[in-house]
Amino acid sequence: MTQSEMIAKKCESLEHHVADVIPILVEFLRQEVEKSGFGRVVFGLSGGIDSAVVAYLAVAAFGRDRVHPIIMPYKTSSKSSVADAKEVLAALDLPLTMVDISPQIDTYFGLQEDATALRKGNKMARERMSIIYDQSAKLKALPLGTSNKTELLLGYGTQFGDLASALNPIGDLYKTQIRRLARLLSVPLSIIEKPPSADLWEDQTDESDFGFTYEEADVMLHMLIDERLSPEEVIERGFEASVVESIMRRIRQNQFKRRMPIIAKLSSRTIGIDFRYSRDWGM
Questions:
Q1: How far is CA 196 from CA 47, 156, 161, 222, in A?
Q2: Does 51 count as an annotated binding residue?
Q3: What residues have CB less than 8 Å from 146, skipping those under 6 apart?
Q4: What is the C-alpha to C-alpha distance for residues 123 and 137, in angstroms, rounded to an integer?
Q5: Is 145 labeled as ligand-binding?
Q6: 225 is in an annotated binding site
Q7: 204-255 pLDDT, tens per residue?
Q8: Neighbouring C-alpha atoms within 13 Å toward the C-beta of 250
Q9: Whole-angstrom distance, CA of residue 209 vs CA of residue 116
């Protein structure tokens, strides 16, 4: 069997596991949001597949009146992304809330003329998340995350930016599984079928940044993380060594993004080390 055939077969298996998750995720949202003392949710709606799936799940959990998506374009953001986000709002009968982040981004970088595209992208991601948390206080709504398992494992996102949230309903689903889930939820096909992009600059795509496809990443991540195979065992099964090594390097290099900040241990009970209770402890 060729590598392409193995990837196709394993992706089909991954997608099969999504068939029954919708009621589980809807109930997860209801229980965790209410347990936190909130009755509403707020999140960024980019026009991509991940935030669209979160929007559909949130409406199924809470109804349209308690769901608050925000579209936050920058002046160079793709017009089609904004149009796709509006299509989700129309399909779910949700009101339009749009905040153009161009003025604050341009004001800051007006004094930082040597800023790289990476710095600007990170700043935009954190600006958007700061708006979501501000609206959280205004609306008494819990911020939802929209990062999937592939992005979280590869570190493809900005710490305290788009990777931040109070609750993430899709963080244990790989990108190929999100695509399947999107079809089950009847997300518009224009969103499901377009190339995934962080929309940081013109013609950017996630897969061109990676150097491999989401299908390749998901299959190898599943073997490395869920099946707990070593990189050598994955390579022995016929997968390209350079891709396996690139994925492992990304997982290791981005571990810090998946952890809370380290606190210097000085007492007998240090937060995060010895003092460890679940988030809803005492609620």
A1: 10, 12, 18, 20
A2: yes
A3: 43, 44, 46, 50, 51, 54, 162, 165, 168, 170
A4: 21
A5: no
A6: no
A7: 788 888 889 999 999 999 999 999 999 999 999 999 999 999 999 999 999 9
A8: 22
A9: 16
Contact (CB, 8 A) for 41 and 29: yes
Is residue 126 marked as binding? yes
Q: Are 63 and 57 in contact (CB under 8 A)?
A: no
What's the pTM? 0.93
146 annotated as belonging to a binding site for a ligand: yes
Give CA–CA dist 123/220, Å, rounded: 31
pLDDT, one tens digit per residue, over 106-127 is 999 998 889 999 999 999 999 9
Is residue 151 part of an annotated ligand binding site? yes
Amino acid, single-letter form, for residue 6 = M
46: annotated binding-site residue?
Answer: yes
**Three-class DSSP category at 239:** coil
Q: How far apart are CA 121 and CA 198, in angstroms?
A: 9
The CA distances from residue 81 to 72, 78, 124, 168, 229, in Å, are: 11, 5, 16, 22, 38
Cα distances from 280 to residues 10, 27, 172, 188, 276, in angstroms, run 36, 16, 20, 35, 12
Q: What is the mean pLDDT of residues 155-170?
A: 95
Question: Mean pLDDT over all residues of the chain?
Answer: 93
Lookup: tokens for 125: 């991601």
Q: What is the DSSP string of 101-117?
A: -HHHHHHHHTT-TT--H
Residue with structure tokens 């022995």? Answer: 236
Q: Which two tokens stand for residue 133?
A: 């948390």
253, two tokens: 């290099």
